[in-house]
Amino acid sequence: MLIKPNLIEIKNIDGDTLKFNISRLPAIVGREIIAGYPTSMIPKVGDYKVNETLMIKLMSYVEGYNGNDEPIALNGYHMINSYVTDTTTLMLLEFEMLKYNFPFLNFGKHKGFIENMTEKVKVIAFDVISKAMKNK
After folding, report:
1. Stated pTM of the model
2. 57 pLDDT band (50/70/90 cuts)?
3. Nearest-CA neighbor of 113 among 82, 86, 91?
4. Are the CB atoms for 20 and 7 separated by under 8 Å?
């Protein structure tokens, strides 16, 4: 069951408009996503399998629409691949979910998703390292 569903439209790479209902995340699920998502995406540092697991969990709070315009829960790997037509669309959908659920991250409109997340991870990492150095 979606929490405060929000109907959005995303154009896929073929220019077709796809409809999705995105949802607020339950508090603890949201905490798990925000704790693991950014760091699992960093090239050569992150863990793709962790990121994939978190993406599947994030998408379980999204509905796509079938040919009869009926909502279908994207609650697993195969359902996501069936209703999300391409990687670009999937990444845009992930971005919309992150914006909807974590407005405090204040995603910049002029920056790309990866650049924005990398910037935020750098700030967090610097803070953690600074605190660790002070405690020595």
Report:
1. 0.74
2. very high
3. 91
4. yes
pLDDT band at 60 (very low <50, low <70, confident <90, very high): very high
CA 111 to CA 74: how far, in whole Å?
28
In Å, what is the CA distance from 53 to each residue of 67, 69, 107, 117? 28, 28, 23, 18
**CA 113 – CA 63 distance, rounded (Å):** 22
Return the structure tokens found at 78.
């195969």
Model confidence pLDDT, tens digit, residues 76-103: 999 999 889 899 999 999 999 999 998 8
Q: Quick one: the chain helix, strand, coil %, rounded to 5?
A: 55, 20, 30
Sign of CA dihedral 115, 116, 117, 119: positive
